[in-house]
Specification:
The complex is a heterodimer of chains A (199) and B (241).
Chain A (H helix, E strand, L loop, with lengths): L7 H11 L48 H5 L1 E2 L2 E2 L9 H14 L1 H4 L8 H4 L11 H4 L3 H10 L13 H18 L8 H11 L3
Antiparallel strand pairs in A: 1-2
Chain B lengths: L8 H28 L2 H4 L13 H7 L22 H8 L10 H9 L19 H6 L4 H5 L16 H9 L16 H12 L11 H19 L7 H4 L2
Helix pairs in contact in B: 4-5, 9-10
Amino acid sequence: MKPILHSRLSQALVLASALVFTTACRQDMHDQPKYKADGASAFFADGRNNRKAVPNTVARGHLNEDDHLYRGRIDGKFAETYPFEITAEILQRGRARYAIYCQPCHSPQGDGNGVIVQRGMKRPPSYHIERLQQSPPGYFFDVLTNGFGAMYDYADRINVEDRWAITAYVQTLQLSQNTKASDLTPEERAKLTAATKPK
Amino acid sequence: MAQIFHKSFNSLSKISIVGGALVALTAVGYAALLFNRSPYVTQQGVVREQPVPFSHDHHVAGLGIDCRFCHTTVEVSAKAGIPPTKTCMGCHSQVWKDAEILEPVRESFREDKSIEWLRVHDLPDFVYFDHSIHIKKGVGCESCHGRVDRMPLMLRENTLNMEWCLECHRDPIKNLRPREAVYEMDWTTQFFEKTRAASLDANGHPQKNDLEIQRELEALQQNLAREYGVHTQVNCSICHR
């Protein structure tokens, strides 16, 4: 009988088992030398992959000349009108965006007693005070775009169209909190009674 | 002297050598498979120490802040987006403004230096995952990220192995929900509770049992799949380019 390692089958088996040790542990394809969003960079001095635009440059198509749309102003004064028609769909969008970004402080009704305020944030004014009741849409758009008091600006988090949609929803809230039941049509009043009836 | 071993032991001994090698090989292979799926490799369930011990539990469950308040680009881009320090400071310039634990946040804001958060969900660079399409098709955050509202410290809920991706890509319907519920946590339980509550009769007894509600849920998901155009997606180039 031949020694065991001389059989073809045994040799093949030994070779096959050696294959186990050839499985790679290298991660080159997993971690490619390319920049991904928010990653760290060894090249740039600030250590960031994300680069800011060079100061005073304007990306093509982003000159944003329209004062009304982009700054909420007409002839330097806060715009009294919206730069586009506010439809029910836009109001719904405004409501959903309001719930994400504004509600934590301003509360669902807009009285400024949101959950973050209850945890120590400076209380914002209610939307239903005289001054804000009288403020034009351009004013609310401006506050969203540039911030006001303790509130930081939201320009980098909410796009222009959504800022107008939120403005429209805030004005809707103002309307809703300052309408007398007697001003409603009979159908609307019936809906209100049904909705507020204790179950 | 009689032989101790019968003649057939010659074959038996050869077979046992070959068979033993085969068993050993299989065992090594199986161990490698298990190792590759272990939390040591996949980082599933492993908490990574971050510069600031940010609690999703507190901010989501405790305060009710929407995912998109911080992860602003999740609906429109591949990346959900890690919030800049300014987002933290929007509240923490006022709330807990002297807390020592938040000093790295204030320092980052003062000196315009990034907080070096460690990525918890990291796919291999040859996978081109896109958050926005999953959200448009009605896949909840929860389906991949788990109960983030119960994570005081962030961890990876799932393996992120390809077999895990394919589990859903082969049969996505079971993970669908209405688009407006994508950011909800524990949506299925909510669906059961709401449907049961809506079926109460005059005496307050639910008229639907769990099996019926489960069928209703599946019917809803079938409808959503049609409405949102959700199909099985297993072509390689869906994720790899």
